[in-house]
Structure formats: C-alpha cells, structure tokens
Amino acid sequence: MLRRLLPDGVEVVESFCDPPEAKLYPEEAALVRNSVEKRRQEFTTVRYCARRALSRLGLPPGPVLPDLHGAPRWPAAVVGSLTHCDGYRAAAIAYRTELTMLGIDAEPHAPLPDGVLEAIARPAEQAWIRSAPPGRHWDRMLFSAKESVYKAWYPYTGQRLGFSDAELRFDPMAGTFTARLLTKPPVRSHGRQSAPDLMNGRWLVGNGLIVTAVATAPR
Ligand SMILES: CC(C)(COP(=O)(O)OP(=O)(O)OC[C@H]1O[C@@H](n2cnc3c(N)ncnc32)[C@H](O)[C@@H]1OP(=O)(O)O)[C@@H](O)C(=O)NCCC(=O)NCCS
Questions:
Q1: Ligand 1 atom 13: the closest Cα is on which residue?
Q2: Which residues of 128-166 are buried (b: 16+ CB within 10 A; e: fewer)?
C-alpha cells in the first residue's frame, strides 16, 4: 500500500503477518525483553521489513536501534521510517540523495476514540473534518498524517513536534495533504539545508487501514 504513496527510489517492504523467520539481533532483543508479546512481534517484524529494504538498497543487514526519542537510527547514507499497527508492519528507506525527509504511518480505518480529535487537531482542522466528504474516517486520517509528519521531521531537525505545531489540509480527491509547520525549525549545522515550512504527503485507504506518507526531496 505504501509503495503507491512514495516516489521511485524508496524501498518499501510491508508485511501483513509476523513471519517466523523474522529474528532480532541481541542488542535489539534486549530492548523488548520485558515487553508484551504484541510489542515484541511488531518490533521484530518491522525490523525484518527494514533489513529487506536495506538489502534491496545494497546495504548490509544490522541492528536497527532507537535514538533517545525512539527514532530508528539508520546507516548514514539513508533516511527511513517504520510503522506498525494491528495486522500491518512496514518499513520505507531511501538514499539521502533521493530524499532528505521520510515519514510513514499506518492506522486502522476507524474513528478515533472519543476526545482524541480535540487533543490532536487545531480548530481549522476540526472545522474541516466536520464538513469533510463522507466515507473516510478523517479524524484518524489526520492523526496518521500528523504521525508521518513527526516521523519525517524529528530525524531531520532533532525537534519534537506537538500536535498543534503543524496544520494539515487534505485534498480528498487527489489523495494528498500538506502540512504547514507553525514552529520555527532549528538552524541546521553540518551543512544541511534548513527544514521546509511546508511538507507534502499522500494518503490511501485500503484493507481496513489508513496509510500516510511524507517525503521531501533535496532542493
Ligand atoms: C513515536 C510516535 C511517532 C509513534 O507513532 P505511532 O503511530 O504511535 O506508532 P507506529 O507504529 O506508527 O510507529 C512506531 C515507530 O515510529 C518510530 N519512531 C518512534 N519515535 C520516533 C521519532 N521520534 N522519530 C521518527 N520515528 C520515530 C519507531 O521506529 C517506532 O517503531 P519501533 O519502536 O518498533 O522502532 C508517536 O507515538 C508519538 O510519540 N508522536 C509524537 C507526537 C506527534 O505525533 N505529534 C504530531 C506533530 S504534527
């Protein structure tokens, strides 16, 4: 599903089950040793997906460990993102020459629990959702798209976003969205380009899931 949302050059590997051949490196296994089985399974399968994507990019397998705030740490030459929800796991990885920022997210295509929309949506987003075309759970779509924005933004900027820090607009016909960043991005060192004010994303509904993706090419 995510393959259809991302440009050529991004390696996407998805799984709708937990294959028995998926295994963790010892340093990965140590991170989920005390976790519930569901967490161990999603953590293991999504890393299996990541290793297959890395291999397609010609990179050797290795542990995918989180940074201080949970973001996966990739080989220096690539950007990538992981997601998992009930019945679905996915990894998307690309060379930095193709993309500077990449975020993916999957959610069940179902309404958000009561009260969550008010916590994650800005007033303009809530107003749009009230009048949005029927047939899609736009509240959950907004949540997923914001998670994709966060997963693209944080690894690039080192800045953690709150749900009010970006205002999203959806195009229900085109299957796209834009995120306007309302926070000032930190100035980058290491010669990197500054982070954009606007990020473009795409969304899709299928197999009972919402998937969203944000990808930014080098300027
Ligand atoms: C961390 C977070 C993004 C995970 O999203 P989620 O929908 O709950 O869960 P998903 O299964 O889709 O994604 C989990 C994966 O996200 C990745 N992730 C976690 N923290 C991350 C970060 N700071 N940056 C990038 N990716 C991150 C990890 O790979 C994680 O999988 P893993 O723990 O198995 O390695 C979310 O829980 C969160 O804390 N969001 C912060 C607030 C926010 O989204 N603000 C929106 C701003 S517009």
A1: 83
A2: bbeebeeebbbbbbbbbbbbbbbbbbbbbbeeebebebb
Measured in Å, residue 154 CA sits from the centre of ligand 1 at 10
Q: Residue 179: what pLDDT?
A: 98
**92: β partners:** 12, 81
Q: Is the per-residue pLDDT at 117 higher than 80? A: yes
- Ligand 1, residue 144: give the atom nearest the CA: 7
Residue with CA nearest ligand 1 atom 6: 147
Q: Is the dihedral of CA 118, 120, 121, 123 positive or negative?
A: positive
Give the CATH number, domain containing residue 50: 3.90.470.20
pLDDT number for residue 195 = 86
| Spatial distance between the Cα atoms of 157 and 164, rounded to a whole number of angstroms | 17
Total structural domains within the chain: 1
Ligand 1 pocket, 163 CB below 6 A? yes
Containing structural domain, residue 76: 2-216
* pLDDT surpassing 90 at residue 185: no
Closest by CA position to 141, among listed 106, 113, 174, 102 = 106
pLDDT in tens, 124-165: 999 999 999 999 999 999 999 999 999 999 999 999 999 999
The DSSP element (H or E) to which 126 belongs, if any, is helix 123-131
Distance CA 16, CA 32 (A): 21
Mean per-residue pLDDT over the chain, rounded = 96
Q: Is 129 in the pocket of ligand 1 (CB under 6 A)?
A: no
